Amino acid sequence: MVKSEDMSTMADDWREVFEKNRVLPPPSQTVRLAVDSHLAQSHGFQLSLRRLTAAHLPQSLEIPEVEQDLNYQLHVTLFDQNRQHFFGKTWKSRPQRMKNNKISLNEVLYFHTSLRLPSTVVVLELVSLSLRPDGSQLALGRGFTVLGLFTNKSEAQAADGDRRLNLHHGSPRILLHPLLKDTVDYSILLKTIDGAHLDCEVKRHPALFSMMHLLPENVLASGDENIPGLAASPSGDALLRPQLLKMLPFTVNRLTISLQPSLEKFESQLLQLITADCHNTQLGPEGTLKTVVIQERRLHVGVHNGWCFLDKPQVVVLEPLASGSRGRADGTIKQITLVKDSSAASSPSDMLSLRSSLELKLTNHQALAVVFQLEYVFSAPIGRETMLSATSSSRAAFLQCLRWGIFCPFQSPTDWKGEEIQLVLQGGAKPNPFGVMVYSTEMSAKTQGLVPLSASGTAQPVSEARDTITFRLLSSLERKASSPKASLRTKQEQASHERRSPSSPSQGQKRILSSPPASPQGPGLSLSQLAASSRYPTISHSSSALPWQQSFPSALHPSPLASAHQLSHVACSAVSNIAHLEMDLQREGDVSSSSQKEGEQLQELPFTPIHAPVITVGMHVPRPSSVRARSSLGSLYSAGFPDIVSCNGEVAEVLDPTEPMPFDPQREETDTLQGNLLVFQFLAFSRIPGAGVGADWPDNIHFTFQFYRFPPVTSQQLKLLTSDKVPHKSNSPLPCVLTSVNKDGTVNAGSPGLQLQFRVDDGFLKPGEKCWFLRYLALHTMHIDIWDSDSLLLIGSTAIELKYMLRQGKSAVQAIHEVEVLTTDYVGEDTPLMSQTSAFSPMSIHTIIRGRLHIRTGNIGCPVDPSRRRAADVTPSHSHVIRPCKITSGFRGGSLSSSNILKLNERNTAQTQRHEVGDCVPWYRRQSRPDITPGEHNLNESDGDHHKIDGMAAMHQREGKEGIKALKVTDQTEDAHLAREPLQSKPGEERSKAEIIANMLSHAITTQHLLYASLGSAEYMEFVLKNPFNVPQTVTIHCDDPELSVITNTEEWDYFKALTKSATPLEENMFRREKDAPGPRVYLRPKESVHIPLKYQSFLCDQTMAPQGPSFFPTGKGSQMAKKNLSNIVAAKTIKVTFKAEDGKPMAICQVNVEPTPHVVDQTFRLYHPELCFLKKAIRLPPWHDPTVSDPDTRPYISVRCSDPNIICQTRMPVPGEPQDVYLKVPGSPSPHIKMFFVMVFTDKWMAAPSQIWQMYVHFLERVDVSCVTGQRTRQSLVLRGKQTVHKVKCFSSQPKETQVDPAGVFVLPPSAVQELQLKVQPWRPGGRFLYVNAVDVESKRLITAWLLCLSVHQPVLSKAFEVCVPVSGGRGSSRKITYTNPYKSSRTFLLRSDHPDLLQFKEDTFQISGGESYTIGLRFAPSQSPGSVEILVYVNNLEEKTEETFCVKVSYS
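The chain above was modelled as a monomer; its predicted structure follows.
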C-alpha cells in the first residue's frame, strides 16, 4: 500500500503553485450582467507592455537612495469601474533599473475573460523598490494609469491596437473613492504626471482558446509561468502558441473513506452539533422539534493543476459499507436518536464506499493533483415539525464540506500503479481548491489521536488513526489492453461462484472491489439541484423506487454552518433531481449485459472520429519576406521585365503590400473605367537550401492556380537563371529570374518572366455581379502551387492578397509581392533500433520554407465599348417571377405534316421568348470566358474556340433582332404555304398526327426561363400558376430533375424571398404531399393565380482533370502563354416542370434552361495517399461568427456538401467551445491517378450559397514501406510497368541526397514491359517520414507512376561516445582526433559519414588500413555564433554503405 501521511510533503509542487496563484473573484453583479448580455463564453487577449517613459517622477521623502539606484516594477491588476472592485491576481514584472528616463519592459501578458464589459479595465501601477536600514524591502507607488479593454458597443468588441497611456499621481487606491464611482474618464479628475507615459498594445489572442481549461478566468499570466498541463516552448513564451501535454485516461476504483473513531460516532457527533446550531439560529417557532437528517453522502473528485480544475469535478454518491459484508448502503434516516433497523444494528457501517469506478484524464506533470472533497447533504425542517409531518415538504436541504485531500500521482517516485493508495483527509480552516469552509471540531481533532486496536488486539500507530481515503488508480489504456474474452470468462466464473456460495459475504465483497462496473463521468451538482418537491425526506438506497422516481425537499435554505462562499450558490434556480452514478449505468428499460438477448442491436456510444493529423484552414499562411539587399533587388528589376502601363501609356501607380489598403466601394462604382485588365507577372524565384536537396534545385518550375471564375491555369515551363553580377552569400538566397523555355529546351530570347492577363468587364460579368467581384478582390487570397517541371513534384504553395489589385479610381495600379513558398512535412517520433514499442508513432506537421516567389500584380482600367455591352447590363436585373406567355395566335388550319408543325413550333417558341422579360439575352454572349485585349494572349481558350463562340453569339444576336420581321413575313405567307402542302403525310414520317398535335399544344402552354447556375448556389424563382377553368382544381407539380424542387417549407420560402427581395405574397401550408403522388399538390380556386416557389441547386460538376505537367505551345504563339484546363462547372441542361390538373393533363409547363457559370475557389488542398485505400481526413474550420447575429456566443449552423457523390463528406455539431471539423472519406484509385472534387461549406440553414468552396486534389501513389537505420544504406526493389506506347522515362526523388534510384538516367520503357528499379535509401534523421518518387516521361512531361515511400528510420546502436568543447565566436573552430582500429584480419576500406556535415568535416572521407591496425580520424568542428550543445553522429561505413561503427560526439559551444 502506498501511504501519504502528510499532504504538505506529498504535494509540494502543487501547493507551491496553488498558494502562488490564488485569485480574488469578480463581483457577482458583474458576472450576472455579463450573462444577461450574452457574454458567457470567455475570449483570450494579449497585452504587450513595451516601454515606460518617466522623465519627471514625483520625489518622495521615504526613499533614501538616489533615483538611479532604485529598481522599478510594474503591477498589473483587473478592476471593475462600476463596482469599484479589484479582482483576479496582481501580476508583477521583473525589477529593473531606469535608463535614460526609460524602462524597457518588453513583457507580454495573457488572460481570458467573459466579462467583456466597458467597466472592465486594467490598472497598471509603477512601483519603486528600495531597501530599508533593517534590510526589508520598501515598495512605494510612483504613479498609475488605467487601460480600457472594451468599447461601449453592444457587441463588446475589444479595443485593439497600440496605446500610449499617461501616468497619474497617487495610488490606485484613489479609484475606490466614492467620487470616482461610475466615472468613465478618470483623466478629468486625476492629475497627470508630465512626461510619464506607458506604451502598450492589447489585442485578441484566439490561440488561448485551446488552453482555457488550464488557466482560470481573469488571471494575468506571462508566457514563462508554470502552468501544469502546458508544454514548454523553446522560445520561452508558452502562451503565444500553446501546446498541450497529452492527456491519458485513468480509472479510480475500490474507493473507500474511513472516518474516525468510526463512521457511526462521527456522524452522531456531527448531527448533534448541527442540531444545536439549528436551535441557535431560530429557524422555526419556539419549541419546534428540530430533526436534522443526513440525506446524502457525496464525494467530489476533480483534477487540479494548482490554478484551477481542468474540468468540472465529478460528483458521486457514497454508501455506508458494513464491515465484512457486501450489503447495500444503510437506508435509514440517521437522527439524533440514532434509530436503526435490525439489519443495520447487526452489521454496523464502518466506512463509506463507492460501488462504481471513476474515469479521470491526467497528464504527466509533478504539480497535477487529484482532489477529493467529502460533502454531506443535510435536511432540516423550516417550520413546526411533528412525528406525523416528518415527510412533509417544509424542509430545507443544505450542504457541508467535511473533509478534503489531494494526491499528486506524478510527484512521488513511488510506484503506485496497481497498488492501493491511502491519503489522509484534512479538515479545518485551510485554503483548499474548492474555496469552502471545512468542518472541524476540537472533539474530532482529539479523535485523530486515538489509538485504535487491530483484530488481534495490538495497538496500531497513531498515524493510522486518521480520516483516510483509500483507492486504486489504474491506467485505462492498460485495462483496455486486457483480453475481452478473458474478462468475460472472469465475470462468468465470478457469477457462477456467487451462485454456488451465497453465504460468504467476505468473498462477495472482494469480488465487488476487484471488478467494479465502469462508470461515465458523474454529474456536476450545485446546491440548487437538490431542490425538488418530494414525498420522502431522504433517499432510501434499499428502496425499490427507481432513480427517476426519487426526489428531494423543495425548499432551499443555507446551512447554519455555511460560509459566505456557500451562500452565493443559493441564487441558482434550476430544479432537477440528483443522478446517482451507479444508477446511471443503465437506461430506463435496460437490463444487465449478461441478460441481454442474442442478436440485440448495440447502443452507440458518444464518439468523435480521429483523423490525425488534422488540417487546419487558415494555418501556415505564407507571409511577406523581409526587404532584400539593394544589389540583389537592383539586379532583379534590371532584367527587363515588361512594365504595367495604363491605357494612356503611363506607368501604373505602385502600391506597398506591407501597408494597409483602404477600400471604398463607392469609388469603384463611380469609376469611369469600368473595364479591368488584371495582370499577373511571375518574375523570379529564390531558392532556399533544404535537407536532402541540392543547392541548385529546382531548375525548371511551372505554376497552377485559378483566378475568380476563370478556368484553372497551368503555366508553361520556366527556367531559373542566376545573375553573375551580384556576389552571392550563403545566408541570403539569390533570386533567380524566370525565363520561358522553348519546346526544344532552349531559353527564349524574349523578355523574361511570365505575364498572364484576365479581362473582366461588362461582357464577362453577369448583372449585379460586379459587387461580388470587387468583394472577391478585397477579401480573397489566391492560392498558387509551384511545381518542379522536371520531376513533376510539388515544390510548395503560396498565396497572394488580391486587395492590392483594387484601383480605387486610379487608371492603373501595381504591387510587387515577395511571398514564401511553403510545404508541409510529416515527421514521426524517434524510435531506437532495439526498442520493443509499437510500430505506430504519432506524426507531427512541420512547415518548411522551400523558397520565395517574386510576383507583380496589376490592374489596368479600360473603357467599356458600348457595342460590347449587353441589353441586360443597361436594364435592371430581371425579376425572379416567371409569368406564362400570352399566345394570341392559334392554329390556322392546313396540313399537319411534320415540316409545318415544326415551323409552327418554331414560331410559337420565338413568340414566347419575345414576351418574356429579361430572358431574350443570347446565351453565348453570357459565356464565362476571359476577354483578351488585342496583342495579348488568351489564357483559357484556343483560337478555334474563340471564333466559334463569337460566331454563334453573332448568329443568335441576329436572330433576336430579326425576330419581328421574320414573324411578319411568316404571318403573311403561312396560309398560302399551308395550302400547298399535301393532305397526306409523307410515307417516311415517324410520328403520328396525335403526337404532333400534343406536341404543338405542349409548346403553346410552355414558358421558358433562362437560369445562370454555379456550383452549390441556389437559384430561386417563382412561377405564376393560374387556373384557367371555372371549377376548382388540385394541381400536381412534377419535375423531371431532382436538382429543381418546389419549396414547401414556409420558413425556407420566406428566407429566399427576403434574400431575393421579392415582394410577392407568401402563404403558409399551401402545399400538401401524398404518399404516392409524384410531387406536391396545391389547391386553386376558379381563375385563381398563385406563386409556386422553385429552387434549383446543383452539387455535382465535371470532375475531369487535365494531365499533370507544364504546357507546351507552338513557337509561333509566343512564350507568355498558359494552357486551357477544364472549367469543372455544372452541366448545361433543360428541365421541365409540369403542372397537371386533376384529369392528369398538363395545365402549364415551365421549361428552365440552365446555363452553367464557373464558381469561385476559396482554398486549394493537395493530399497524398496510398493507392486503392480510403483516405480519411479531417479539416478544421476556423472560428466563424455570423455578422448579422448580435450574440457572439451563438453557434453558427454549418453544413457541407461534396461535388462527388461517391465521397462521404460530413460535419458534426460540436459541443460549445470545441472546434468543428469536416470529415472526408475518399475512395482510393490506382497510381498515379489524381482525384479532384469540391467541398462546399454553408453557414446558413437553408444553404442558399456556399460561404467557401474548397478544391481538393488527392494524389494516389503506390505505397512502399521501408525500414532502415540512420547513416546506413538500405536497398528496395520497385517494379515499373510499361504502358501502351514506348516512353523515355527518368525517375526523380523528393530527397535526392537521401534517396537514389537505379538507373539514375533516362531509360526506355517498352510497351507492357516490366522494369525493375533499385531504390537506395540512406536517411540521416530518425523517426517516421514520407518521401516521394516519380517516374516521368521526359518527352511529354507526363507522370507515368508515383511511389509513396513510408520510411521508418531507427536510431543506430552507438559504439562509443565523446564530448568536446568548442569556443563561441572564435572564427576558427576546433580540431580533434579519434582513433579507430580495424577489427578485421584483412585490409579494409572505410567511409566516414556525419549527420551534420555543416558542423563537422573530416580530414579524409575515405581511408584504408590493414587488418588489426589503427587509424586516426581527423575531425574539424565548424565555429558557432551562439552557445549551446548538439550531438553529432559519426558513421564508419564500408564500401557498401553498411555501418560498421557509430560514434556519438557531444559538442558544447561555450
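The chain has a mean pLDDT of 75.
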